[in-house]
TrEMBL record:
The complex comprises the extracytoplasmic solute receptor protein and the two transmembrane proteins. This is TRAP transporter large permease protein. It is a multi-pass membrane protein. Belongs to the TRAP transporter large permease family. It comes from the Bacteria.
Length: 446
C-alpha cells in the first residue's frame, strides 16, 4: 500500500473516533502509533512485527519527549499559574471594579465593564476558559443582582471570555508557534490589535442591544464621584504593570515571552502574599489547578507530535499540496475552505484539539501559497475563538453554566450569543481581508 494512502486512512480513522466521542489525545496518539507500527512492519513487503516494535517505540517517544522538553512550552504552566494567582491576589477583581465605575453611565455599562474585565484578565492569564470561569464568578452574579436580562449577563461574559485566545499572552499562540516554528513573541504582538478590535466590537453589540431593548438592562441612576473613579483606576496598577511587563518587555526586546511569564508570576505571587490574600495553604490548590490544566494540554500536544511524525513518515502533507496544485485552487478559495473547516470543527472539539489535529496538515499547504504564518496564526486563533461560543459544544458556555450552578439555562446563554457571533464574523472578515491589522505591530519591531 502507498504510504500516502496509509496517511489518508489514518486521518479518516481519527475523524471516525472523534465522531464517536473518543478523547482527541487517545484518538490521534493511538491511531498514529498503530499506523507507524504498520508502516515499519510491512516495510520489506512481509509482515515482520519484531522489526517494527522498537522502531515505533523509539519514534513515538522521541517525538513526544522533544516536545514536552521544549523551552517555549514552559510558558504554558507559567501563564496558567499566573491567571490563578492573579485571581487569588484580587488583581482581576480590581480590573472589573475599575471598568464598572468608569462605564456605569453607558447603556449596559456593567456588561461592557464585564467585557473590559475579560480583556484585562486575558492580558494576564492567556486562557479563554479560565477567563470565562473567573469572570463568570465575578461579573455575572452582579449583573443578575442588578436585574440585567440573563441572556445579556451571561452572553457578554461568555463572549468576553474568548478574548483570552487573542489578547496576549495566549496559550493557543504558544502551541501554534511551537508546531509551526514561528516566533511566539511576534504572535503575541500580532494578536493584540485584533483582540482590541474584538473587544470594541463586543462593546458595540452591547450598546446597540441595550438601545434597541432598554428593558434588558437597568437605567443608571447614580453618577460615581470622580474621586472614586480615580481611586478605582489607581487600584489597577498591578494589572497594568503585568501587562507592561509582558507586552512592553517583549516589544522592547527586554524579555523573551518565557522570561516575561516567569517575572509576571513572581510579581503576582509577591503581591498576593504581601496583601495577605495568598497564604501557604493556598499554594497546593493553586499548583494542583495549574498541573491539571497543563497536564491535559501537554498530553494532547505530545500525542499530536506522534501524529506529526506519522504525517512526515507517510508524506501526507506533500500529497495534499500536490492535490491542491492539481486542482488549481487559489488562495482565496483555500482560505474559505479553512474557515469553514475550523468553524465546523469548533462546534464539536476544543481549541487545543482542533489546532494539534489540523496544523500538521494545514501548514504545508499555507507555505505552498507563500502566506505569512504570523497572520495565518491570528486568523486560526480567531476561528478557534469563535468555536468557544458556537453551539452545540461552546466550551465557554458550558464553563459559565457550571460556574452559575444552573441559575441560567445553557439554551438561554446560547440565545444571547448570536449577536456576538455576528460581530466575530465581521472581525474575522477584516483580519482575512486586511493582514495589516495583524502584522502592523510585529512589523514595527523590525
Amino acid at each position: 500500500m502507498d504510504l500516502a494512502t496509509v496517511g489518508y486512512i489514518s486521518c479518516a480513522v481519527v475523524i471516525f473516533l472523534l465522531a464517536i466521542r473518543v478523547p482527541i489525545s487517545f484518538a490521534i496518539g493511538g491511531v498514529a502509533v498503530v499506523a507507524i507500527f504498520t508502516v515499519f512492519a510491512f516495510r520489506t513487503g512481509t509482515f515482520m512485527p519484531e522489526r517494527a516494535f522498537w522502531t515505533t517505540l523509539s519514534l513515538s517517544f522521541s517525538s513526544s519527549f522533544d516536545l514536552v522538553h521544549s523551552y517555549d512550552l514552559s510558558m504554558i504552566p507559567l501563564f496558567i499559574a499566573l491567571g490563578h494567582v492573579a485571581y487569588k491576589a484580587g488583581i482581576t477583581t480590581e480590573i472589573y471594579e475599575a471598568a464598572r465605575v468608569w462605564l456605569a453611565r453607558l447603556p449596559g455599562g456593567v456588561a461592557i465593564a464585564s467585557v473590559a474585565g475579560c480583556g484585562g484578565f486575558s492580558a494576564i492569564s492567556g486562557s479563554s476558559i479560565a477567563c470565562a470561569s473567573t469572570m463568570g464568578r465575578i461579573c455575572t452574579p452582579e449583573m443578575l443582582r442588578l436585574n440585567y436580562d440573563p441572556r445579556l449577563a451571561t452572553a457578554s461574559v461568555a463572549a468576553g471570555g474568548t478574548l483570552g485566545s487573542l489578547i496576549p499572552p495566549s496559550v493557543l499562540f504558544i502551541i501554534y508557534g511551537i508546531f509551526t516554528e514561528s516566533s511566539i513573541s511576534q504572535l503575541f504582538l500580532a494578536g493584540f490589535l485584533p483582540g482590541v478590535i474584538s473587544m470594541l466590537g463586543y462593546t458595540l453589540v452591547i450598546v446597540l442591544w441595550v438601545k434597541q431593548r432598554p428593558e434588558i438592562a437597568p437605567r443608571p441612576t447614580e453618577v460615581t464621584p470622580m474621586n472614586e473613579r480615580i481611586t478605582a483606576a489607581l487600584r489597577c496598577w498591578p494589572a497594568v504593570l503585568l501587562f507592561v511587563v509582558v507586552i512592553g518587555g517583549i516589544y522592547g526586546g527586554i524579555f523573551t515571552a518565557t522570561e516575561a511569564a516567569a517575572i509576571s508570576l513572581m510579581f503576582a505571587t509577591i503581591l498576593g502574599v504581601s496583601r495577605r490574600l495568598i497564604r501557604l495553604r493556598d499554594v497546593i490548590p493553586l499548583l494542583r489547578e495549574t498541573m491539571e490544566t497543563t497536564g491535559a494540554i501537554f498530553f494532547i500536544a505530545a500525542c499530536a507530535k506522534i501524529f506529526v511524525a506519522l504525517i512526515a513518515l507517510t508524506g501526507l502533507s506533500n500529497s495534499l499540496v500536490g492535490l491542491l496544485d492539481n486542482a488549481a485552487i487559489g488562495p482565496v478559495v483555500f482560505l474559505i475552505m479553512v474557515c469553514v473547516i475550523y468553524l465546523v470543527l469548533g462546534m464539536f472539539l476544543d481549541p487545543v484539539g482542533i489546532m494539534v489535529l489540523t496544523l500538521p496538515l494545514m501548514i504545508p499547504m499555507v507555505e505552498s501559497y507563500d502566506m505569512n504564518l504570523i497572520w495565518f496564526g491570528v486568523v486560526i486563533v480567531k476561528l478557534l475563538e469563535i468555536g468557544l461560543i458556537t453551539p452545540p459544544v461552546g466550551l465557554n458556555v458550558f464553563v459559565l453554566a457550571g460556574v452559575l450552578e444552573g441559575k441560567v439555562e445553557i439554551g438561554k446563554i446560547f440565545s444571547g450569543l448570536w449577536r456576538f457571533l455576528g460581530i466575530d464574523l465581521v472581525v474575522l472578515t477584516l483580519l482575512v481581508a486586511i493582514p495589516w491589522l495583524s502584522l502592523a505591530i510585529p512589523m514595527s519591531m523590525n
